[in-house]
Specification:
The complex is a heterodimer. Chain A is of the alpha/beta class. Chain A is built from 28 helices and twelve strands. Classes of the chains: A alpha/beta, B mainly alpha.
Chain lengths: ~700, ~190
């Protein structure tokens, strides 16, 4: 792009931003003033001022999302964007000789399902090999796994993968002894050890997937734009099995393009990074994107949990551009299957986002990066504010009803407001609902007029019915999520943890007991509030009925939406299906096929299942050799440490693995001398002298022929 | 062998346990064929009984012999694979043996120190090379520390700003206090 066209592009981009923020402020101002005028017509009080303030804050998010969808809709409709990284150069997937750089593909992993994880790596490797560009890429498996079973299986699968592809120097496995700073620390460790050897790195999540064409386009884009630090793709969701996941997946896919286009409309070269499915220029990342230590202690202080937003802000601060390449497709990630899995994930994200308050308010970062962080904070803070809004509304209604006074309606403050109170109220309601639901209407209009878009979803009618279905589903789920998020925010701010006692160990769905344990509080809130609202005024009850219904139905919704049967039936009938399911791209087909294959790993009996990894390392000489292959050779170790680990080894031998904690087992697993010694000792100890656990281990391992040498 | 078995110190249960221990070890090290395992289990047991006629601690003793034999065989094989100057990483070598199915197809090479044919040796070498950790240079890049405003710095900078203006300091504090009082008053009305 020449200087003149760059200048023109920047001017166009500036106009787009001015237009966007002017529209946003206008919509917000009009909504707030309308609401204020409505409230003041029935008299003002501190509670009503609170209501107006809350409405104003809540409408900020609504108005922002609405404007984003509106401009995204226009961009998608006219197929033009004021500034778009993907349009800057002509990308030709065939022109892979344009690549001259070296790229690291990072696959950080922490106790994930090794089978799915390695299937993803295998699919990526094969896709790049088939495209003829593998020589530019090196895969790094960065393991922080603390579960010995997962750890051992990762090592075994790495060995199988490298041998299958003769991937000498192409697939590197590294296990960290100490997972300091979690994922960001994991990536930092890569940067410290190997970062200088690579021009760019692409981060994957454990469930991420990107086709070779997508990866190639990202590389070509960042190569052609030396001023760019990060290019983020807009991943589509895949892998939905349950009704909950299916609704999410469908909503992401059908509304995602408009949303991403709108996001790019205002953020342009000041985009955000979501932690995966993005390409990063390594040098500035190492030099400029070291995460700060936040003041104070956790949960809001200390180490940054949600590192991605901060790294994007730091990259921008360093003068590099951060873009969302929303038009590059074939970038995917999987999603939580149940409402409770989703809520548990949100629990972590809530803390990470609230931590950004320090940086958003006090950090010296670009203004638009601040907006990204505030959006992230708002996404969680809105829940308790909405709850407060409902509480204040109920309190005001109660105060009024209990006063026994006659309503005196005051005249409107602004001439532009509707004349009667009823029409005024209706206008405010319609306006609020419009901001909420018009983005869905935009998608429906697009389904109607955009043939190519409609065809990707199979039938337009089924897609439209599916849109109505997912709107209904999420309207019912939203009150439940509101209470979850409120609990997360309050617990984060007060330094407490929200814990669910019931666990769905080994099950793919939410049981009634688990749902009861997680949602009983919400159901009781629904019962209490419903009775209170009805007693105050039946009209109030009717206004609040969608929210109350959501709370009352939270338990059955959680259970029903976690099952696969109904979801499968809907998919078979063509409802809530995405283009990736109707006509799967090669890489999605590959991963689906590999994931459907039965596992070849030995399945231990339940008594040995928890420590099968540890058992394998000690009994099987080849798994031991493989594990020792990865352990660093510590020449110097304090004698106290050596002695402590030796004692742990003795306890393991004399009492079995269940007597040790996870930390103790991992200490043994990180000590090559102890492991070698234990291997010899276990085999040389007569059976009568072994504890029951080891006797069972040797007998079962022997009988099931689980030895790697036999399986291999 | 029979003489040993008939001696008073001999216990058939111990011998059974010892036999099974050898079998399990051979299986662990990749000797897949049951007949070959049986043959070597008997040989090792015989050897153990001849060296140690009492069946006390027999299981432990046969395990020691078996592991020693296997390791000796593997080490000998390693010396044949490599040049004089080359140091063999034994963990990698074990893995290379497992991958090339040497214990499975050529158990006598491991247990009886027989010579491995050239083709098989080449296969072992190939798997050994694949198994080797790639030597990617490690260079510590470090990262320059980045300054970030902390709450102390913000409050500190505000104090610095108001330092020369005591009237302004009082005014700011006064306004803040008045705001709090107003909110409390409004809500308590």
């Amino acid at each position: 792009m020449n200087t003149e066209s760059q200048k023109r592009s920047k001017q166009l981009g500036l106009m787009a931003r001015i237009l966007f923020f002017t529209s946003f402020i206008s919509v917000l101002t009009i909504s707030t003033l309308l609401f204020y005028d409505l409230i003041q017509r029935t008299g003002l009080s501190p509670a009503k001022w609170t209501l107006i303030t809350l409405y104003s804050v809540l409408t900020t998010g609504l108005a922002f999302g609405f404007c984003q969808s509106l401009f995204g809709f226009f961009v998608v409709l006219i197929k033009r964007s004021p500034r778009n990284i993907s349009e800057q150069i002509k990308i030709d997937a065939e022109q892979h000789e344009l690549i001259t750089c070296s790229v690291a593909l990072l696959f950080p992993v922490y106790n994930e399902d090794p089978e799915r994880f390695f299937n993803g790596i295998n699919a990526t490797y094969e896709a790049l090999s088939k495209a003829g560009i593998i020589e530019h890429f090196t895969i790094f498996i960065l393991s922080d796994s603390t579960d010995s079973n997962r750890w051992v299986e990762e090592e075994k699968r790495w060995q199988a993968l490298t041998h299958r592809h003769h991937a000498k120097t192409k697939i590197i496995y590294r296990h960290r002894t100490n997972n300091i700073n979690q994922k960001s620390g994991n990536v930092s460790d890569f940067c410290r050890r190997w970062g200088s050897l690579f021009d760019y790195m692409i981060c994957f999540d454990a469930d991420s997937l990107m086709s070779a064409e997508c990866i190639l386009k990202l590389v070509q884009l960042i190569e052609a734009n030396p001023q760019v630090g990060i290019i983020q793709t807009a991943p589509s969701l895949i892998g939905a099995k349950t009704l909950f996941a299916r609704c999410q997946q469908f909503a992401n896919r059908i509304h995602g393009e408009i949303s991403s286009a709108g996001l790019n409309f205002w953020q342009q070269d000041n985009g955000n990074y979501w932690g995966h499915n993005a390409i990063i220029r390594v040098q500035p990342f190492i030099e400029k994107c070291a995460l700060p230590e936040l003041p104070g202690q956790g949960p809001l202080g200390g180490r940054v949990l949600s590192h991605d937003f901060v790294e994007a802000a730091l990259m921008r601060k360093a003068g590099y551009e951060v873009w969302l390449a929303h038009e590059i497709g074939e970038s995917y990630e999987e999603l939580p299957q149940t409402l409770l899995d989703f809520a548990q994930r949100d629990r972590r994200w809530c803390q990470g986002n609230l931590q950004h308050s320090w940086i958003a308010i006090f950090g010296r970062i670009p203004f638009l990066s601040r907006i990204h962080m505030l959006n992230g904070i708002y996404a969680y803070l809105a829940a308790p504010l909405w709850l407060l809004f409902l509480s204040t509304s109920t309190l005001i209604a109660y105060s009024w009803e209990s006063s026994g006074l006659t309503q005196l309606i005051r005249p409107r403050a602004f001439l532009q407001s509707p004349e009667t109170l009823q029409s005024h109220g209706l206008t405010v309601l319609v306006g609020t609902l419009a901001m909420l639901f018009l983005p869905k209407v935009f998608t429906s209009i697009r389904l109607l007029f955009d043939n190519s878009f409609r065809k990707t979803f199979g039938s337009g009618i089924r897609a439209f019915i599916s849109v109505l279905g997912e709107i209904t589903f999420f309207t019912l789920i939203a009150p439940s999520l509101m209470l979850f998020h409120s609990a997360f925010v309050i617990s984060t701010l007060t330094g407490n943890r929200v814990v669910w006692n019931a666990q769905n160990r080994g099950l793919n769905y939410t049981t009634w007991i688990t749902a009861f344990s997680a949602h009983i509080g919400q159901t009781l809130v629904g019962v209490f509030w419903g009775i209170l609202a009805w007693k105050i005024n039946p009209t109030l009850f009717y206004w609040m009925s969608p929210v109350i219904l959501g709370w009352l139905a939270s338990i059955p919704l959680s259970v029903i939406s976690s099952h696969e049967d109904f979801s499968e039936w809907l998919r078979a009938k063509g409802f809530l299906t995405t283009p990736e399911e109707i006509s799967p791209p090669a890489i999605v087909e590959k991963i689906n096929f590999d994931n459907s294959k039965p596992t070849t790993e030995p399945q231990p009996i339940e008594l040995l299942r928890d420590d099968f990894g540890l058992l394998q390392i000690i009994l099987d000489p080849y798994i031991l050799a493989l594990h020792l292959h990865f352990l660093p050779n510590r020449k110097k170790q304090p004698s106290e440490t050596t002695e402590r680990i030796r004692k742990l080894g003795e306890t393991l031998l004399s009492a079995g693995a269940p007597t040790l904690s996870t930390t103790e087992k991992n200490r043994i697993l990180n000590d090559p001398h102890t492991l070698s010694r234990l291997h010899d000792q276990v085999w040389k100890t007569p059976e009568a002298e072994l504890p029951p656990w080891w006797r069972l281990a040797i007998n079962r391992y022997n009988r099931q022929s689980s030895f790697v040498a036999e399986l291999g | 062998m029979e003489a040993v078995m008939q001696s008073k110190a001999f216990n058939t249960n111990d011998a059974d346990s010892a036999y099974h221990r050898i079998d399990a070890l051979l299986r662990a090290y990749g000797i897949k064929n049951a007949a070959i395992r049986g043959h070597y289990s008997q040989r090792i047991l015989q050897e153990a009984l001849q060296q140690k006629p009492s069946s006390e601690h027999l299981e432990s003793y046969v395990a020691q012999i078996t592991i020693a034999k296997i390791r000796q065989g593997v080490e000998q094989l390693a010396t044949h694979m490599t040049t004089v100057d080359e140091t063999v990483d034994m963990d990698n070598f074990y893995l290379a043996l497992q991958r090339s199915k040497i214990p499975q197809m050529y158990p006598d090479v491991i247990l009886a120190q027989e010579t491995l044919n050239q083709q098989a040796m080449t296969l072992v070498r190939k798997h050994y090379d694949i198994q080797a950790t790639p030597s990617i240079r490690r260079i510590s890049m470090g990262a320059s520390p980045l300054r970030f405003d902390s709450i102390d710095e913000v409050t500190g900078s505000t104090s610095r700003l108001l330092k020369g203006k005591p009237l302004l300091q009082i005014l700011v504090k006064g306004l803040f206090g008045l705001l709090i009082l107003t909110i409390i008053y409004q809500f308590s009305k």
